[in-house]
Design a protein that fits this description.
Elements: E1 8-13, H1 16-27, E2 34-40, E3 55-61, H2 70-78, H3 82-99, E4 106-111, E5 115-121, H4 125-129, H5 134-147, E6 156-161, H6 164-186, E7 190-191, H7 197-210, E8 213-218, E9 225-230
Parallel strand pairs: 5-6
Antiparallel strand pairs: 1-3, 2-3, 4-5, 7-9, 8-9
Helix pairs in contact: 3-5, 6-7
């Protein structure tokens, strides 16, 4: 199965330059290959610490740009020490979650060709997931940054807590199917409510796989949303 190519990435950093550099590494492309939009320039805060706010940028890969071929991706994945990466991910999570005074019942970790998958069982799932998934997304982001400090463990990380991700996917499929019916019936564009980058990516892929529809993103930051419309017939 061919790996889905990320076309759009919203990323944060201490400043704009750091955010761009981090995003380009994750997208595996150069600055010339993307369209750049600064969502938030960020602030240093008092003495560079208190009240500091990260910079946020949106990187969109240009249509004409192709990602590295699958052979290059396979070569890169062979260089990852997944045994060490999985071990580190478990240690990072146990350390972070213990600082939150949350007890973990179990952590299951596995990996496929490029991603480390984590399933966490806890009696405090709502706290660890957070409102609209903000806590679980932040947890995933922090662990990813920690892994990226070592080139041998630079794998992608996917964290799920009490099947939250699976339930979210089912919810997104349901609203996507309703949107499709609306677009078919009215021939109009349907715009979803603003959602996270992970949720937007899921909708783009899901609707693309159905076929017959074009999707797009619009808005900035927390107001960014996905739109769907009938695909333009090619003559």
């Amino acid at each position: 199965m061919e790996k889905e190519i990320i076309k759009e990435l919203e990323i944060s950093g201490k400043n704009i330059e750091e955010a761009i550099e981090t995003g380009l590494k994750q997208l595996n492309c150069s600055k010339e290959d993307v369209e750049l939009k600064v969502l938030d320039e960020g602030t240093k805060g008092l003495f560079g610490l208190m009240g500091a706010k990260p910079a946020r940028v949106l990187l969109t890969i240009k249509d004409k740009v192709k990602s590295k071929n699958s052979e290059e991706n396979k070569k890169e994945n062979k260089e990852i020490d997944f045994e060490l990466a999985c071990k580190n991910v478990k240690e990072y999570l146990e350390r972070i979650i213990s600082l939150m005074n949350i007890n973990i019942n179990d952590i299951k970790i596995s990996h496929n060709e490029d991603t480390i998958n984590v399933e966490i069982s806890t009696d405090s799932g709502n706290l660890l997931i957070g409102r609209a998934g903000q806590c679980i997304n932040a947890l995933e982001y922090v662990v990813q940054l920690m892994l990226n400090t070592n080139s041998k463990t630079r794998a992608k990380v996917g964290i799920d807590i009490e099947n939250y991700r699976q339930k979210q996917e089912e919810r997104l499929k349901a609203i996507a199917n309703k949107a499709i019916e609306y677009v078919k019936r009215t021939k109009k564009i349907y715009r979803f409510e603003p959602m996270s980058a992970k949720e937007r990516k899921f909708l783009h892929i899901y609707l693309k796989n159905i076929g017959g529809f074009d999707t797009f993103s619009e808005g900035e930051g927390l107001k960014r949303k996905v739109g769907v419309k009938l695909a333009v017939e090619k003559k």
